[in-house]
Amino acid sequence: MTSKADTFLKLAKPNKETGFSRVVSLSELRRVGLGFGNGGSWCRDSSSLARRYNVERIKEGNRIVAVKLNGYKKAPLNKPIPAKIRRKVVKGRCAVLATGKPECDHKDGRLDDPRLTDPKAVRLADFQPLSKAANNAKRQHCRKCRETGKRFDARRLGYSKGQWAGNGRYMGTCVGCYWHDPRRFNREASKAWGK
């Protein structure tokens, strides 16, 4: 069975030497079964395609209308989750919605901790169960934080403070942000602000 990434590569025909491809329009993608019903899961930053290539999702407003490869990644993103940890995490309930069948999510939304590249060094505490919806929301907020340097403000969810540790600026750690660990955020909020 051919993966969606392989299907895209056959269509886009990236240059073998540089990794650059032509712009592939939404209509072309749909003809080979590569729509964006799930937010472009096959071409998002955490996809197998984006581990090898710099993927550009060309948008009109919030809609992806085309995809292009802009060369090979200098240092491919490879954050393997050991199977033992994955199995344990997905047995839980979503840390945000308390629903079953969660995905195994890296708490560190930046994925820039070098320790996370070593399957022998990662710990169960580095991961959390998130439903697909919650994981997609986290991904969006983490991307915004990377672009702006501003952490997610939990007051948007009705909390009295934006972070339980740190301030509104990203200063090298995700700890304290709601999305880093929603369960801990709720515990800290109950302890400090629930009086």
Description of the molecule:
The chain has 195 residues and is an alpha+beta fold. The protein has 2 domains: 4-72, no CATH class; 83-193, no CATH class. Helices cover 29% and strands 14% of the residues. It contains 6 helices and 5 strands. The chain has helices at 4-12, 26-31, 48-52, 83-89, 132-148, 182-193, and strands spanning 24-25, 53-60, 63-72, 103-106, 127-130. The strands form 2 sheets. A 3-stranded antiparallel sheet has the order 1-3-2. Strand 2 (53-60) and strand 3 (63-72) form a beta hairpin. The protein is globular. The mean pLDDT is 87.
Features:
6 helices, 2 domains, 14% strand, 29% helix, single chain, two-stranded antiparallel ribbon
Write the layout of secondary structure elements.
Layout: H1 4-12, E1 24-25, H2 26-31, H3 48-52, E2 53-60, E3 63-72, H4 83-89, E4 103-106, E5 127-130, H5 132-148, H6 182-193
Antiparallel strand pairs: 1-3, 2-3, 4-5
